[in-house]
Amino acid sequence: MPMELNPSAYNLPARVKLRVVGDNHIAIVKLIKSRIIQKDATKIVEISRQIQAVEPAMRVSLVCSSAICSKSLALLQREGISVQIEEL
Predict the structure, then answer these.
(1) Which of 20, 18, 39, 14 is closest to 28 using CA atoms?
(2) Edge to edge, what strands does the sheet with 4-5 contain?
(3) Distance (Å, rounded) from C-alpha 55 to C-alpha 41?
(4) Which contiguous run of DSSP H or E holds residue 42?
């Protein structure tokens, strides 16, 4: 089981779930039943920037269910955030 991280270490709200997926690599975990839309993707980009403000060398990914809109996927890829699909 991957190790969970404390979001307060990155000045993030407690409801943000973070997971270590490798050396200098963290994942933002969003396993929700509803579709991830562009508004959600914008928030994920902000979270990623906050993490990289604290640790610039850190790579950030998103772990989510398969329901993600194409515009969100494009935005995340433009920002360098890879997406890993996990079932609920």
Answers:
(1) 18
(2) 4-5, 17-22, 25-30, 59-64, 82-85
(3) 21
(4) helix 38-54
pTM over the 0.70 mark: yes
Multiple choice CATH, 4-85, 3.30.750, 3.30.1360, 1.10.1060, 3.10.50: 3.30.750
Domains in the chain: boundaries: 4-85
pLDDT tens digits along 34-82: 999 999 999 999 999 999 999 999 999 999 988 899 999 999 999 999 9
Contact 19, 2 (CB under 8 A): yes
Total Cβ atoms within 10 A of residue 61: 20
